[in-house]
Amino acid sequence: xxxxxxxxxxxxxxxxxxxxxxxxxxxxxxxxxxxxxxxxxxxxxxxxxxxxxxxxxxxxxxxxxxxxxxxxxxxxxxxxxxxxxxxxxxxxxxxxxxxxxxxxxxxxxxxxxxxxxxxxxxxxxxxxxxxxxxxxxxxxxxxxxxxxxxxxxxxxxxxxxxxxxxxxxxxxxxxxxxxxxxxxxxxxxxxxxxxxxxxxxxxxxxxxxxxxxxxxxxxxxxxxxxxxxxxxxxxxxxxxxxxxxxxxxxxxxxxxxxxxxxxxxxxxxxxxxxxxxxxxxxxxxxxxxxxxxxxxxxxxxxxxxxxxxxxxxxxxxxxxxxxxxxxxxxxxxxxxxxxxxxxxxxxxxxxxxxxxxxxxxxxxxxxxxxxxxxxxxxxxxxxxxxxxxxxxxxxxxxxxxxxxxxxxxxxxxxxxxxxxxxxxxxxxxxxxxxxxxxxxxxxxxxxxxxxxxxxxxxxxxxxxxxxxxxxxxxxxxxxx
Length: 480
Fold this sequence. Notes:
The protein is of the alpha/beta class and about 475 residues long.
């Protein structure tokens, strides 16, 4: 990769743009061949760092050319981990045994901390078990079967009347490639640093506004700050695009800090269906995924939830024939079994990101954590997963816009649509938002529109986003 980068930079110095792009193309193709042999999602994701400089050079060169060429290079260089169709799990008893030990160790460490006891030794044991699970996963099999980058023509055809906005940054400048009505346009938006700063401000405002018990005077001040942050982000990111996108439904491909944006809170997008995807290729794969083979619905609830996040009665009324796992019944084994092949899974459970390895991001269930890598190896991924209780849409963004967290691992595993929050969410707000959402979903609306209408009721305390596709068949169309 360094040799290809050196040759490309020499070509740029000789004003030979065509040769420079050829070197970038060859280098990224070679990197892709190495990536295809990798076992484990973390290794597949980590290869992006080796092509970052070469990809950035190619994007910089194509910014001067046609928007269609820029679109192609963005798709070559970003979020490649989502181009893989995960292979069925290898039945390796060593992995299963080590994973069970890891779950017990995590649970014991958590209980020790809650009781005020030292958990240092247990945390060391947990870290060692994590490394062993990852190491075993590297050798069990390649992560998945590679799929080609989606051609622009295929993406445009799948969009129909919607528009796709793919953000990119080069040399500190933020641009957007917009695909709408079969045409591709480039819109220059200004400084990436300013947009990133306001994205962080809005994220912090929404976090501060989340607690259910926030005193009204403080809540009013924080809400005013969130309104100002959302308005400024709207001015920077959306309003310059309105002449091109009009009032269309949107597919948004963020970059960097923009992954944390709650798009449904921006004034121009309140009530508008917006789907967030790591790349146009990832969106196309999710949008064209086959429908669910079954109509099974799972309702699962983890421990230590408070307030109306226990919206079980309301959701059982909406889905009377659902598999309902609550309390001690909501174990890892039972939830995994119900997730396999489900049309819809609603999981209300506290979770935790693991920034160093997204596969160990977790949801807390009755007998311990459900790790992202366990869901990622299901033979038949559920068609839609709703993560109702925590900020699990937020992802740790690695080089190459490889955004991974719990929700990202689900998308990479082949789940077409994931509903999750970008920031903290209060239990009361989560419960009411989810009842609104599922009521609309059951009435026949597709996920992205059902969520847009539910979030619009209170866009600053319902920070949920629709990830992946959002256009699958509505649950109301397939039965309970």
